[in-house]
Design a protein that fits this description.
This protein has six helices and no strands. The protein is an all-alpha fold. The radius of gyration is 20 Å and the shape is flat.
């Protein structure tokens, strides 16, 4: 069996805990608000993907129903891009859902 060597770049990596990275910043109102917003966007993206998959629809099928490119659905499901309320409403309707603000 051949011995595996670790490249020098990987040997030089240093790992940090979340506490070391975010320190006291994670306790601030600004950080907590940004974190909550990001988590909400990611949860929404996951919910859309789960709903689409449970209905056995492809991204292309949803996009076709709302007359938009498939890339819009991919970006929405990635959770890394913002989305307009209009687009979100169209996607929800295509999936048999509605947008509800709580």
């Amino acid at each position: 069996m051949k011995k595996r060597t670790i490249p020098q770049a990987k040997k030089d990596l240093k790992w940090y805990t979340p506490e070391q990275v975010f320190g006291t910043a994670r306790k601030t109102k600004t950080f907590k608000k940004a974190y909550a917003e990001e988590m909400a966007r990611l949860k929404l993206a996951q919910a859309i993907r789960r709903t689409r998959e449970s209905k056995r629809m492809t991204q292309a099928a949803v996009a076709q129903k709302i007359n938009m490119p498939q890339s819009v659905i991919a970006r929405l499901e990635s959770g890394t891009h913002s989305v307009s309320v209009d687009t979100l409403s169209k996607v929800a309707h295509a999936l048999g859902k509605q947008v509800e603000l709580v």
